[in-house]
Each structure stands twice: as C-alpha cells, then as structure tokens.
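Subject: mismatched residue count in predicted assembly?

I count 769 residues in my input, but I want to confirm that the predicted structure covers every chain. Input:
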Amino acid sequence: MIELKNVSKTFTLHNQSSAVIEVINDVSFSVAAGECVALTGASGAGKSTLMRMIYGNYLTQAGSICIGDVNVVQAEPREVIALRREVLGYVSQFLRVVPRVPTLDVVADPLRALGVPSDDAQARAQDLLTQLNIPQRLWSLSPTTFSGGEQQRVNIARGFAHAYPAMLLDEPTASLDATNREVVLSLIEEAKARGCAIIGIFHDESARDRVCNREIDVSAFTPGAAA
Amino acid sequence: MIPLLSVQGISKYYGAHIGCKDVSFDLYPGEVMGIVGESGSGKSTLLNCLAGHLPPDEGQVVFDTRTDGPRDTVTMSEPERRMLGRTDWAFVHQHARDGLRMGVSAGGNVGERLMAVGERNYGDIRGKATDWLERVEIDASRVDDRPITFSGGMQQRLQIARNLVTGPRLVFMDEPTGGLDVSVQARLLDLIRGLVRDMGLSAIMVTHDLAVVRLLADRLMVMKSGRVVEAGLTDQVLDDPQHAYSQLLVSSVLQV
Amino acid sequence: MTHDTEYNFAYLDEQTKRMIRRAILKGLAVPGYQVPFASREMPMPYGWGTGGVQVSAAVLMPQDTFKVIDQGADDTTNAVSIRSFFQRTAGVRTTTATSDASVIQTRHRIPEERLTEDQILVYQVPIPEPLRFLEPRESETRKMHSLEEYGLMHVKLYEDISRHGHIATSYAYPVKVEERYVMDPSPIPKFDNPKLGNMPAIQLFGAGREQRIYALPPYTSVISLDFEDHPFEASKADHPCGLCGAIDSYLDEVITDDQGGRLFVCSDTDYCENRRNAGHKGKDAA
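Triage response: the counts match. Full output below for your records.
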C-alpha cells in the first residue's frame, strides 16, 4: 500500500548562508495493507520528517513515495489533495482548525469533505467523541479552548472519522491517560483489521509492541548519525 | 477533468515597471488557491488581470465557460467578459464599500445581480435575497436596512451574499478578511470555508495573512517582485518552503 | 412684443444651430441614446430650460407657431418668459392652444390632447441620465448603456417597493425605448408615460447643463420598466377636475384656504379651458 524507494531529503537554508542539511538519505521500505510499521530512532533522527514527506507536507528531493498508485513526490497538488481526502489519513500532534467551529463539526469535517450527508457524518463524530470520552457538553464548543489532552483526543477522533486505506500516526498515545490510551490502541487495531496500512511513531514502547508488526530505525538513513 | 481556469504567461507592465511577469497555473473545480507576497509583489495586479479588471499585456486566461467550453477571457468581447463577471465569476473586495452599494438596502444589494441577469419578479428576488442573508448569518429582518448601518463584519458577509446569489463557479477574493477584528475574521473564515465546500466553488484569494491561507487554501503561490517564486500545496510551501523569499516570509510570522 | 432684428433668428448663430441639429438627427436615428452636444450659455439660468430653449431654437422656422407650457400651464413665469424670448428673437407666432402649435416646449408635462405628425414636442430635462442616482460615475453609466446592462435600474424600483410597498416613483419614471436604451423621460408624471410611446409627433429632449440631447422619432415603442408582480400603473389623483369635470386628465391639487380646503384642477390649462368653453362644468366651477 505504501512504498518508498531511494528517498532522500535535504533542507537548504537560504537565509543562513545557504546551508544545506541532509536529513534523510536513501530510504526504501514498504508497508502492506493491514500492517503497522513503527518508525524508531533517537529524537531528531528524522522520524517526523520522513512522515511529513510521505504526507506530502515536506518536499522530497529524490526517490519515489507511492501510496496506492499515486507517487506523492511527483503528484500535482490536486492529486495530493484528493489522496489526503480519500486514501491517506494523518494524525499529527497538533490540532489545526478554524477558530469558532464546534468540535462535532471538526470531527465530522473529513467525512463532509467526502460528500457524506451531514447527519451520517455527525453520527460517526458523536460515536468517536463518546468512545474517546470527550464530554457531550464540549461538543458544541471550539476545541481551541480545550486542554492539551482533550485536543489530542479530538485530533484522533477527526483522524479516524473516515476509514482511510492508509494512515500516518505521530505519537497518537502521547499525553493520554490509561483509559483513553486503550481506546486509541483499539482504534488502531480495528483499522489494521480492516486492512489499513499504518506508519506510526510511538515513544510508548508497550503500545508500540502491541500494535506494530515491525520497526524501522530511521537513524540508519540519517547522514548525521552515520558519521 | 479540464481546469476551470488555465492561466498562461500572464504579464502586466506599468511602463518600465513590472506589475506581474509570466504567471501560469491551472485551477481545477473545487480548488482554493492562495496568493501571498508582500505589498507591491504584484498579487493584486495579477488578481485584477485574472478577473478582467485590468487588461494584461501578455498571456491568456482561459475559463471553462458553461456554454462554449474553454475561452480566453482576455480576448473575448467586453460584454461577454462583463457577463461572466455577473454570472460565473464573483469578486470579493477587501473593503466592503468597494463591493457594495452603500445607498441601497441589503436586499437590493443582493438582488442586483439577479436583476442584472433578467429576473423581474419582485417577490422571487426578495425571497432569494432574504434566503442569502440568512446563509451569511445576517438576520432576515435587516433586509431593508442599508449596509451603512451594518458592522464591518456584516458588510463583508453581505458582500459575499451579493456575489454568490447567482451561483458563480469562480470567486476572486482580495484580502477578504483584512481590516476585520480577529474574532470577526474567524467567523468569516468559517463561513467562506462552508460555502466553498457546499457550493463546490473554486476560489483565488490574495492575502498577506499566512494563517488565513493555511485554513482556506489548498494551494499556494508565493509572489515577489511580480514573479511567482514558489508554488505548491499550501502546507508544503508553509512548512517546507524552498525559495529564499518564501523561507523569509514564513519565518517572519509572529508566533502567538 | 416686436421682433428684435439685432439678434440672429431664434437667438443662436447658424453654426450653433447646425451643431444642435446634427445632435438631434443623431438622437432621432438612435432613439433613447443620449447625444453629447456643446451646450451654449443662454440668457437665463441653468434649470430654467436652457436645454429645451436651445433645441427649440434649432428647430424653429419663421412660419412656426410656438407654445410653451410649464407643469401644463401656459401662464406661469417660466412659460411666459420663454414664449416672449422667442417672440422677440425669432418673431414667430405664439399660441396657448395645443392644436394650433407646431412646436411645443414643455417642462414636466405632455399635453392631454393627442399630438399629430405635424408637431414637435421639446422637453426641458434637468438630469438626462436615469442611472445617475445609483451610479455616480459617468464612465460607468455610459458603459452600462453601451452594453445594455440595466439591472441597476430595477434596483431603484426594488428599493421603492421594499420601502413603500409599491413603486413610489411618480415622476421621471424610467422607460425602455425600442427594447434598447433605458431613458429618463424628464420629470413628467408617470401618468404621462403611456403617451410617450407610439406618439405621432417628434419628441426631443434637451439638457443644457448636462449637455445632452436625446429623442424619440414618431411612433416609437416606449415601455415603462416594472416587475411582473408589481406592474407599471399610470396614476393620478382620484378626482374629477373641479373646473371642467374631466376624469381623464392629470390634476394639480390647489390649496384654497387655511382650513384644509382644496381643489383638484386640470394641470393642462388649455385642455381645461377648451372643455369649459364646450360647456363642461366641474363641481367647483363658479
């Protein structure tokens, strides 16, 4: 489902004497449907960078990243947009929303973008928010005012609203209590069971051991680490 | 799928000075594109060339018309171009007073485009105007009030209603949230986002507010000295800018 | 008053009259289109009919019979002074009888009596541009005319209905000429609008300060703008004339005392007089 071939990335900092920093060098791996792969490596090794490259958020200088039959490295913006809408979900560590929009609509939004009728989308959103223990009295409020943990759970609910065939998870269980951590892990297991290909970053080792089929140490592809 | 708007090599010169130079891009149905850059970078000149307000010196602006398919709007006759401006195109000005008739009631402002395309039933026109006021969250009881009695945010929402009443397919926006309070901005952003989605609109939006483009635009073009220096997915350009100027622009935003 | 031969015939010099006649011919060729012309200073203030006077001067011939009405009346200051102006500068015969006149200059009325193919009706126009109150830019209104973009004209009528429940515009009511140009018929009451269309006489409109001439050739189609659900109505005071009893003429309301007493009389003084001479009598007639 997800296939990386000879992927490399550099950052060129034009405003700092055009310094060129190599961050990822020659990564190749693939993730099959129903498989969950963990990216590991020390902080700063390039786990998040690699994940953002797969999402098309960071530009990739060399190689190919195929999600299904779309090569993100060369795709037109509208192809990447369609890919993100239909195929590739991403749960980041940060919630970015239009201020003032109620939590329920934030969570239902990915489904509305796919043309799901408003009522059905809201029902799915309610279900997820209930599972993730967001009190109903908060549903009509904007999540921008919520605590960090609550925002994280809203973000997860939004990420899991649509049954994407492929997902990227950046620290999905960070800052969650035991109960909610359990909910998130079972959401991941459900996604795997229906055939979703997942790449994740988990600092939480026991969570990683429970949901991941294998690990890829990103440090091996980091030029700085090799030196 | 063919693009709704295909822009090829648009240039505009003000004497020896470059307004914008050799701008090309395709915009597909349902896409929202942001254009950012500092004052004087040519983004407003470009927008005005695209919307038919300024004649470009070079290039084509090919629009996929409903009846005749793709047509170059630069070379089409003025009546045809102005007709597009009243039907399939909409233009939202930064200052609502530039886009509204301040001496005409809210209902008359919204109804004007309907009457311009030949609607002649008062009851129908008023009904549609009232409906649109509600869609942009203006109380229907204000239909006979003049926009001069409205707040800045309401005026901007009225301008949007006036533009969208004929169901356009392409909306040009020039700093649509500029000059508004932050709380009012948020409400307007939410409204525009909802309308873009529900009506399947395509939009080209000029702004200098990177937070606004991140929330509204799928794609982004960065302009400097009349030229496009970088273009791509909005979040990619903002999070991993490639060009020196884009990097400077992104890093200059104050964090809150 | 005798003809003052120190002046050129009808005051204006021949070159100026030629220039105005050219504008008139163009106006007749493109009915409803506002033709710019080089309006001259006239020996009267703007707003007193300088446009109408220049058009009259350009069309008058020595054998013409000239009539001037102001709000329908032959005997008001404006009518009297313009009539005497042409008596003195052109030496033409003047009359107050509509049927005897070959050229009639009018301010704000069309005579009740149907005009004929041998007559010319000259209107005094204060503001020729019907779109002016909604669109102040001349460059833009010209473009609207040339491209036939008249949505704005209906906005004005829309505003009327939204504010008053009906189209309250009662004079200078906009019309569309030959399904092409929207035209301001000058401040005539909308009661007169139906007479504009299909008229046998030539109708000429002159705006002196605004330097515009426009025209309706005989038997031109003139339609008053309206909405399907608020159709145009030619309205007048719902009374008979107090002096002649006419029920089909446009009426002026005359306040007769401080106790609220009032009288409705024909605004067209010639029409009223003819009826009274023929024996018609209203309830207030002495």
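Chain A touches chain B at residues 11-15, 52, 56-59, 77-78, 80-81, 96, 98-101, 112-113 (CB under 8 Å). Marking this ticket as 'not a bug'.
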